Amino acid sequence: MSTTTCTQPGCTGQIEDGYCNVCGSPAGAAPLPAGVATAPAPAGGGPRFAQGTGLAPNPASPPAHLSPASSRVSTRTSSSRLETAAIGSARGSRTQRRTGTSSTRLRGHRIGAGLTVVPPTPVADPLQAIMATPQLAESKRFCPSCGAAVGRTRDGVVGRTQGFCPACGSQFNFDPTLGPGDVVGGQYEVVGALAHGGLGWIYLARDQNVSGRWVVLKGLLNSGDKDAYEAAIAEREFLAEVEHPLIVEIYNFALHEGAGYTVMEYVGGKSLKEILTDRRAANSGVVDPLPVDQALAYVLEILPAFSYLHDHNLLYCDFKPDNMIQQGESLKLIDLGGVRRINDDASAIFGTVGYQAPEVPTEGPSIASDIYTIGRTLVTMVLDFRGNTSTYVAALPPVGDTPVFQEYDSFYRLVVKACAPDPADRFASVDEMRTQILGVLREVVATNRGPGSPALHSSASAHFEAPMADSTGAPLGWDELPTLKVDPSDPMANWLAGINDPVGRLNALQGAAQDTVEVRLARIHAAIAAGRFELAQEGITALLNADAWEWRAVWLAGLRELAMGDVVAARASFNAVYGQVPGELAPKLALATTCELSGELDVAEQMYVVCARSDANYTAPSAFGLARIRAQRSDAEGTLHALALVAPTRASYPVARVRRAGVLVNTSTTLTGLDDALTSIKGVPVEPSLRSDLEIAVYTAALTQVLKNARVSGSVGGVVAKEQPLRLALEAAYRTRARLARGEDERIDLVDRANAVRPRTTT
């Protein structure tokens, strides 16, 4: 068998049988991307420095073209409480979405994607896993035919493990049928029972024909249970076709005394359910959920197994924490007893209450129902999910009652989409979900670093280009928000890349040889740029009529509405896009922008913080947004923290440093703060006139403090904090600024100010 090295970043695996034996990615998969009024002058008035560069006493007036609603301010903090544009089933569409799993640009590399660390689970000696007394708990004994409780203790008499159901008369037997030393199929020597599963007892055995390797034998609950028997046979047939490094391997199917047993790979370690149980035990019996980043890392690791199954027209059906085993630093998907073919309409359906999608009993399982179980599993791992089989059997707890949802807004939007009541509103494929989980994981890890933490790196998005503008003085305009990437698989992708004339772009797009989706999206964007808003709306409506889930059309609708000044409508559109691609930052930046413009400052701040922390490409525009919001609240410390996020490598860095200096000048009550204002622009390329304005403002504020309190000591910008040295420094700053004046009147005014502040002399 030939092997090649996996192409995924950070993965050391080899391609075997078309898939990586470490991360599970298919061969040839494209790598995943990894805001001043100044202090009064003692004489001659104040300097002109820093208008609008620090803390403003009142919120800036909204641009005239914005709708009246933009002036209102609210205290909502969760984006889920904002209006959202209609998309998907909310548009009245009942057409089932096309589901596909063949795209490789949405697949990536292994556990945690190098973003977080999941503690390894020690692999114990298999012999230690054997049950000393293999007996099924009475609470789990039910008639295999009618489901009635059987084998229970009554009147002090211990319940029987064998007998007949008093409700329907069917025979039941919960005793292991195999014992130590039994040899199954002439090859597998039983060592003992490991556990009791949904289809019966599971045994540990040695393969006498293959170097005594450990194997697992999985038998039937009751040989007379027709559904269970058929499920076991089905499991044998399906699993004979399954070969993936993240899925337990099936070796054989053996018979012993009229009973059938599946022979599979022994996987040591612990299931996620056992890990959660251990955490609860270590927490004095109180539920201790997994950190959100670890839960996401687990699911991110196992999703390629689902992609593999779906690519082979198979459905898993019964995913839950019990069926993921961590073995050291790797995971395995186990217990494929419920696996069935996508087009199977006859076999018995196996699932678990609280995890199974609500439509399965009537419509049967699907890729969408598998995605639902993944979402429910994520929620179960991070919450004390009480009521998951009753009150919330087909719903999620309210955001207001769930701190995890409040802290990790993107995570909430992720599970809302995965667990949508309408199957068509869920992720269309596991690959699509995996891409969004990766983005959400990146945001969660960034959030966990704490407030004020800048992004550590930039990450390529599957759907958006990086933002190109920082918009230091006002919220981003519609044409400054990130642009959509062109799908390289579109037949017209190369042709679109060649249209570089912004003036004639709309005409060129009107004459495209093929009217593909990408051409239609580009035509809408060009129409917005040309001010042809009616034409843009026609294109948006046509796209959504063809596919009610085409969130890119809703994104363009938001751009159109923002360009027209309808901020509230744009906010709803961007909020809808956020719900569709919760791992993408572009919708969050757009939502933050429209929330800032419409007075939803708390939501805007939350979105800006997430963007600033998560991706270096988004840090600067988000930092300036944060600074504007915090300046409106007269939050000097918060404004300084925001401006400090702008990296020295960014073109807007000098602006951030000047604004930082302006905040310090206006709010500092000590000479240290004023000295820090000058230090802020040391070595920073700043216009000479602006630098002089800052010096004038700093020395003016310092002189004011000294005149109020003669006992003040220290220095500012190397000048001793005494009246005469400060007056001399202020005079020099005025004269330097006068030499830079643009007109004679300005020069004379500045010289007069210099003369007014100079120390009195006898000459």
TrEMBL record:
Enzyme Commission code: 2.7.11.1
A GO molecular function held by the record: ATP binding
Residue ranges crossing the lipid bilayer per the database entry: none
Official protein name in the record: non-specific serine/threonine protein kinase
Pfam families in the cross-refs: Pkinase, PknG_rubred, PknG_TPR
Compositionally biased region (Low complexity): 63-105
Domain Protein kinase: 188-438
Keyword terms: ATP-binding, Kinase, Nucleotide-binding, Serine/threonine-protein kinase, Transferase
Region annotation (Disordered) ranges: 43-106
Catalysis performed (reactions): L-threonyl-[protein] + ATP = O-phospho-L-threonyl-[protein] + ADP + H(+); L-seryl-[protein] + ATP = O-phospho-L-seryl-[protein] + ADP + H(+)
